[in-house]
């Protein structure tokens, strides 16, 4: 097909091609190596003739930025790239930019066939006169070929070969360029060149360059801006307009403007006005990776890190973790995540209301949507940052910097050697679910003593009596006595739940936790979970857990027994906008709806609300807490020995959230009683505010069968008191 971009006599075209074939080897050698000259190269070209060189240039897709979006599909969390590039169509590149690059790099672009023999001969004369390489004679088409070969290089050797100052490389560029112009229009070659050229500051292609230097898309470029960008590709570092001395960049821009006048692209008056204008830089940085999330949203980095954990586990993106990261950094994907900007902002605000970023204690919170597994927020009083130079001192090591306010540790989702923290009595939920699933009703009663000797053997310690585990209640006068699941859970009666665990078996409670997604990340916990028959203390939350796993476990209860694996990604589209198939919601029923409703009914008690069967008579959350939420709400408090950690999990039918307060640098450093209230309010207010304006949904009522036999009289609500457990 004839190329519409040319307007040249056919005989002249033929002459160019013949000259290229006959003279290429000799001329190129002289251009590239003036000191050696053509004679030394003549023998080399005997067998490796110009016509024998390959003509079909393999053009892989150029690396493009992948963008990570929040759930609205508009809010950019960050991007990932190896080279900051975003391809644009020819209609998005204004004529002024196309003309500027031609004026700067290849004034005869529309006259040659990919190799400009006028330029080659001119370079031959100039280089031989100077004794070194002063002019390279590379056309825009040849430069495009070089960029393609360099970008496609998979090894350092290939990259060096693509840019080496050798006659072989120059000849191959010419051969490819001539062939390329037979199958591509000038417009397409120019578009591709402007999408691949390096403009400095990691900006590849005109879109990235426009945004990097002027914070505008290419379509908005002015004449002086286009001239400046066009001038950069020759030597981006030498003409860097952001350096202290703007003179080289200004002179180069003005040179391009003069060239545009010579080519009649602009008139002298327009060029003069453009020369008088300042450089007018308005630089902007394009984020790259999780540590580059927006400065005012440093908390987003923890969710971004959680997304990366998911991405690098997907085999469809590569055989190894590094291959999958390479795919992300080069693939030009649009990834829409589950992060809800509104819920994230609320969660972060509520955490910071309770504790500042400069506090060694961290409150880390995860918010999950029941029935979907969508992770909507991950908040903590930390900044996701690698810069720890001004961090506070660790409470564990004298003189060593701690992980506050800046860290990249996955405090909310876990990973590596971050296993989570003990969550105390929140684990009583798993014992209760196991008992309900085994046929025991909510009305199962037991006269809970202040201290209970169980059949679970222990080696020693304060909870040991005669070689057996003997838990005790945190506040006997308020917790002891005849209890059922409602008030046993509401008042967090340790001896009631130790007894209940014995009735069903610790292995059943552990198995239930696994069903609901508790992962036992710590090696010591994993060993106990593998042989749980004698793990009596499990019901009191002695296993480490992350806020995310705990929130999702309770979200399963909120979803009436349907477990959904936590998910961070909604959709992935490739650079062409086509959907990439990824795993969807992984949901399945793990407990019956009636069991989940019964557990929820009991979970109304700790927060100070009332169950369907009016059996709540006191809770462990702050006074007035349940009423302040303003809608049906359930949850559980949890503290560990000496309040080393404080935990709260809360849920409605629409949302579940868990927060754990701990010292990440020194988990044995107790946060203290005050943090028990802090985590309660952080979670409660997050759910309340996130659901403002949403319909109020009721919890399902458990059956009379699972409620069990109840006396005709109702339990009188006891004075709600705050106790730690």
From TrEMBL:
Catalyzed reaction equations: Preferential cleavage: (Ac)2-L-Lys-D-Ala-|-D-Ala. Also transpeptidation of peptidyl-alanyl moieties that are N-acyl substituents of D-alanine; [GlcNAc-(1->4)-Mur2Ac(oyl-L-Ala-gamma-D-Glu-L-Lys-D-Ala-D-Ala)](n)-di-trans,octa-cis-undecaprenyl diphosphate + beta-D-GlcNAc-(1->4)-Mur2Ac(oyl-L-Ala-gamma-D-Glu-L-Lys-D-Ala-D-Ala)-di-trans,octa-cis-undecaprenyl diphosphate = [GlcNAc-(1->4)-Mur2Ac(oyl-L-Ala-gamma-D-Glu-L-Lys-D-Ala-D-Ala)](n+1)-di-trans,octa-cis-undecaprenyl diphosphate + di-trans,octa-cis-undecaprenyl diphosphate + H(+)
Transmembrane segments: 12-36
GO MF assignments: penicillin binding; peptidoglycan glycosyltransferase activity; serine-type D-Ala-D-Ala carboxypeptidase activity
GO biological process, alphabetically ordered: cell wall organization; peptidoglycan biosynthetic process; proteolysis; regulation of cell shape
Pfam families: Transgly, Transpeptidase
Keyword Kinase annotated: no
Bias (Polar residues): 400-409
Annotated stretches, region: Disordered: 385-409, 699-725
Organism of origin: Actinocatenispora comari
Protein name as it appears in the record: Transglycosylase
Record family assignment: In the C-terminal section; belongs to the transpeptidase family. In the N-terminal section; belongs to the glycosyltransferase 51 family.
Keywords tagged on the record: Carboxypeptidase, Cell shape, Cell wall biogenesis/degradation, Glycosyltransferase, Hydrolase, Membrane, Multifunctional enzyme, Peptidoglycan synthesis, Protease, Transferase, Transmembrane, Transmembrane helix
Signal peptide: none
Biased composition (Basic residues): 702-725
Residues of the Glycosyl transferase family domain: 75-260
Chain ranges of the Penicillin-binding protein transpeptidase domain: 365-661
Top-rank taxon, per record: Bacteria
